[in-house]
Amino acid sequence: MGDNKKLGLWSIILLGINGVIGTGIFLLPGKAMKLMGPGSIWIYVFDMILVMSMALCFAEVSGLFNKNGGPYVYAKEAFGEFVGFEVGIMKLVVGMIAWATFAVGFTTALSNIWPAASNPLIKNSIEIGIILVLSIINILGVNFAKNLNNIMTIAKLVPLVLFIAVGIFFIKGGNFVPMFPTKVTPSSFGATAILIFFAFTGFEGIAVAAEDMENPKKNLPIAIMITMVLVSIIYILIQAVSIGTLGAKLAASSTPVAQSAATFLGGFGGLLVTVGTLVSIGGINIAESFILPRSAVALAEDGLLPRIIAKKNKAGTPYIASIVTAVLTIPIALSGSFTQLAAISAISRFTQYIPTCLAVIIFRKKGMKSTFKVPFGPVLPILSVGVSCWLLTQATKIQITWGLGAMVIGIPLYFIMKSSDKKIDKSSN
Predict the structure, then answer these.
(1) Domains along the sequence of the chain with CATH
(2) Are 48 and 227 in contact (CB under 8 A)?
(3) Transmembrane residues, as ranges (predicted)?
(4) CB within 8 Å of 165: residues ≥ 6 apart
(5) 208-226, pLDDT tens digit by residue?
(6) 82 burial via Cβ count (<10 Å: 0-12, 13-18, 19+)
């Protein structure tokens, strides 16, 4: 694939922003305000520091490899094939569930301005259409998908930037008093921190498509850091404007950003944010449709999934993987059984974060030098692992069970694929 068809630095950054900013930021301000009051803005800062520590670890290890796979590759190279497979299969499974949920989320948001979208037949048709159309777009080539992703990312940022730029002049300082209306306890702090934490997730997926990027060892670390800095600034400012314009009303709002925009931009502002929500969800659908097939390709290239899945067309795109992931995602979208998505997603994220952070220390001991190095020695990787473990303690038993259950399912699949791959190798010899 020629470099002109690959993702340059700014396209990688836009892919990252598109993959992180989804529906959460349009809904979280109200929930965070309800849990922690105006002091919730400091939880964003707290989570930003924690996530940036993790992002630094991802930036260092991403500077070591050119292969697709991201966290799967890092875990495999640091801890062996089995651990790598567990990380990779979790990312693949949760990616399909997440994409299905994004498709359903789009029709849910659409029904707010077009009630007919809630009709089961129309709803299902739209969800199938989203998955199929985006898969076809990705099969047509990286350049086409790249351009569409860039356009959608910029389009989703416009209403958010406008909301911040105008809303900041309507902030009322009195709405931040008292900063913490109720006593802050470890449980309330943890509940708010874990809620907001998930708004920052998604950056780990940027590295999955490394082979489709220009000079990934150099550009990936830069893109990861720029992505998370920009996202963090946007999140903190949105929370500040939402609190400053709505005050206590924010806690009871189900559409906080839209309601806040309506206070200083009128009905137009509310509509603009609603459209922005659709664009945002549409954008994260595009990002997931691009990243998900490449998660499967990385496993297939190593014989941990059928090797045919890694096959590419003349445009250099993994068309078999795109078809397979789309076919598997559609029934999940139509099933409507997404209540455990957050739980599975929560645990699966840590199966990527913890091994990657520890991999930084392992690779350094092996003498592997990256294009980027995490400062302060092993402090930040260890801190990141500790934070991940702390966040896991905030999960319920049901969430832990679902998350570990998904990993357990991967164990027999690993040995089946290893046995199958050995038979293929023997027959070819």
Answers:
(1) 9-426 (1.20.1740.10)
(2) no
(3) 7-29, 41-59, 92-114, 126-145, 157-177, 189-210, 222-241, 261-284, 316-334, 340-363, 375-393, 399-417
(4) none
(5) 667 778 888 888 888 888 9
(6) middle
Is 90 exceeded by the pLDDT of residue 327? yes
What pTM did the predictor assign? 0.79
CA atoms of 262 and 269, how far apart (whole Å): 5
Residues 6+ apart with CB under 8 A from 183: none
Cα separation, 134 vs 55, in Å, equals: 28
Q: How many CB atoms lie within 10 A of CB 10?
A: 12
CA dist., res. 237 & res. 140, Å (int)? 38
pLDDT in tens, 6-52: 788 888 888 888 878 876 777 778 888 888 889 989 999 988 888 88
How much is the pLDDT for 214? 85
For residue 61, pLDDT beyond 50: yes
At 381 the three-state DSSP class reads: helix
User: Taking the CA of residue 118 as centre, how many other CA atoms within 13 Å lie in the half-sphere pointing to its CB?
Assistant: 7
Q: Mean per-residue pLDDT for 356-379? A: 91
Contact 241, 167 (CB under 8 A): yes
With tokens 């892919």, the residue in question is 15
In whole angstroms, what is the distance from residue 114 CA to residue 160 CA? 22
CB 75 within 8 A of CB 84: yes
What angle separates helix 81-110 from helix 397-428, to the nearest 10 degrees? 120
Residues 6+ apart with CB under 8 A from 245: 167, 170, 171, 172, 175, 260, 263, 264
- pLDDT band of 337, cuts 50, 70, 90: very low
Query: Structure tokens of 89?
Result: 């299969």
